[in-house]
Backbone:
C-alpha cells in the first residue's frame, strides 16, 4: 500500500526518460521510434513503441500495481475472450529517477468507442455482454482460489457511501439530488452477490473500449481486474448504451434485479467521483459523466 508521501509523487515523464528505460532494460527494442499518445488516460502516460508495441508508465501511485497484475493475468485470459486485450510482453523496473514498475504491451489499433456510434446498437450491446460472460466463465475453480488475493479484490460499493453522499450534496442543483439519493440507498441496500466469485474488468466504461471500422475490437486498461461481484462492470450500460440497447445487454447477460441496481449504484458513484474531480476543468469528462449520471437514474 502506498504511503501518503508516495501517493503525492507525480514523476516527470518525457520521451527522453522512456527512451532510456526501454533501451537499457529491453535492448531488443532499442531504437524503435517512440510516439506519445495524446490524450492518454488519467492513470498512465502511453507511448507507442514501433509498430507493434506500447509503453505505459503510471502517472501516480494508485496505478503502480497494474503492470505486474496485467503481466500475470492477461496472457491467461486473452485466449478465452472474444475481443482483443493488450497482452503485456514485459515489465520494466524503476530507473533514471522514475520510481515504479512500467509495462510494454502489444499495440492495439482502434478508435475509442463513442456514444454517437454505438449507443443504439443492440449488436454492440450483445457483444459487450458476450465479453463479460466469457470473462466471468474463465476457470472458475482458479478464481475461487484467487479470491483472497489482495490485488484482485476491491472495496464493496457501500465503502463509497460517505464520498457518494458528499458528492450528491455538492452537485445538488446540477442534478436531481433526491433521485440520486434514492438510487444510492437502493443500491447499497440491495442483496449482495451470492454467487461464486467471478472475474470482473473493474473499469468497464466507454474510454476502455476500442473500435475498428465502427465495430468493437478490443478492451483495454485492466488495472481494476479482480474477482468477486460483477456488478461493477455494468457501468458500461450507462456510459455507452441507450435504453433499448441497454435492455438487450441486460437480457444477454442475464442480470438479476439486485445485481442491476448495484450496477446502477456503481455507475452513479463512479460518475460522481469523476464529475466532482474533473468536470470543472475538463469539458469531455463533464459531458461523459453527466450522461452516465442521467442514464443511471433512468435505469
Residues:
Amino acid at each position: 500500500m502506498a504511503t501518503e508521501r508516495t501517493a503525492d509523487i507525480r514523476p516527470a515523464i518525457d520521451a527522453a526518460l522512456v527512451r532510456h528505460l526501454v533501451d537499457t532494460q529491453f535492448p531488443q527494442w532499442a531504437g524503435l521510434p517512440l510516439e506519445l499518445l495524446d490524450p492518454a488516460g488519467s492513470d498512465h502516460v502511453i507511448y507507442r513503441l514501433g509498430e507493434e508495441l506500447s509503453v505505459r508508465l503510471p502517472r501516480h501511485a494508485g496505478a503502480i500495481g497494474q503492470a505486474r497484475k496485467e503481466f500475470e493475468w492477461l496472457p491467461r485470459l486473452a485466449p478465452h475472450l472474444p475481443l482483443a486485450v493488450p497482452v503485456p510482453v514485459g515489465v520494466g523496473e524503476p530507473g533514471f529517477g522514475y520510481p515504479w514498475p512500467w509495462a510494454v504491451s502489444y499495440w492495439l489499433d482502434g478508435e475509442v468507442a463513442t456514444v454517437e456510434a454505438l449507443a443504439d446498437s443492440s449488436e454492440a450491446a450483445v457483444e459487450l455482454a458476450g465479453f463479460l460472460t466469457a470473462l466471468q466463465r474463465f476457470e472458475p475453480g482458479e478464481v475461487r482460489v484467487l479470491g483472497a488475493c489482495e490485488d484482485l479484490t476491491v472495496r464493496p460499493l457501500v465503502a463509497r457511501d460517505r464520498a457518494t453522499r458528499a458528492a450528491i450534496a455538492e452537485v445538488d442543483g446540477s442534478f436531481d439530488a433526491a433521485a440520486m439519493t434514492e438510487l444510492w440507498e437502493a443500491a447499497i441496500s440491495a442483496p449482495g452477490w451470492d454467487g461464486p466469485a467471478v472475474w470482473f474488468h473493474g473499469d468497464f466504461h466507454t474510454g476502455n473500449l476500442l473500435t475498428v471500422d465502427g465495430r468493437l475490437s478490443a478492451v483495454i486498461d485492466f488495472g481494476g481486474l479482480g474477482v468477486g461481484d460483477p456488478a461493477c462492470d455494468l457501468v458500461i450500460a450507462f456510459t455507452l448504451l441507450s435504453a433499448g440497447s441497454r435492455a438487450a445487454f441486460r437480457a444477454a447477460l442475464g442480470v438479476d434485479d439486485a445485481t442491476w441496481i448495484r450496477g446502477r449504484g456503481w455507475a452513479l458513484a463512479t460518475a460522481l467521483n469523476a464529475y466532482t474531480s474533473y468536470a470543472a476543468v475538463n469539458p469531455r469528462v463533464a459531458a461523459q459523466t453527466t450522461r452516465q449520471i442521467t442514464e443511471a437514474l433512468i435505469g
Remarks:
- Residues 257-278 form the longest helix (22 residues).
- Confidence is low (pLDDT under 50) at residues 1-6, 143-148.
- The two ends are 36 Å apart (CA to CA).
- Strands lie at 34-36, 44-49, 53-58, 88-92, 102-106, 111-112, 198-200, 209-212, 215-219, 226-228.
